[in-house]
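Consider what follows.

. . .
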Amino acid sequence: MNEQAKILIKTLSMLDDRTLFLEFNDEVIIDLEAIKLIDKNCDALVAGRKLKRLVIAGKNTLITKEARVFGQVKSKEMRNIVIAEAVVVNTLPQKMVANFYFAFIKDFYPAKFFTDINKAKEWLSKY
């Protein structure tokens, strides 16, 4: 992961051979350029294998409309790769964004947001 990605990403790793773990830093704004950089780093790590995703939103981390649209398009492209996705949120605005995102991807793969990482992991373990 390069220095630019480290500004956005706190942790990017595999929890196990089928679960990508992506944790964002606190108080960052994810714009279109940033989400493309994040996507590139995730793709390099997973190398096209089928997987589950656990995403942790940093405290007060926000995503721009352009980045959300890119994420929705990317999710549609990855519907045959992603098994399930759990997103841990911290704030009401993050919950609202998650609800909108999940409404868009509901036909692609199971996805759910949580406020507790252990509950998110437990839910993902079912897939």
About this structure: The beta strands are 9-16, 19-24, 29-30, 51-56, 62-63, 82-88, 111-114. The CA atoms of residues 26 and 58 lie 4 Å apart. The radius of gyration is 13 Å.
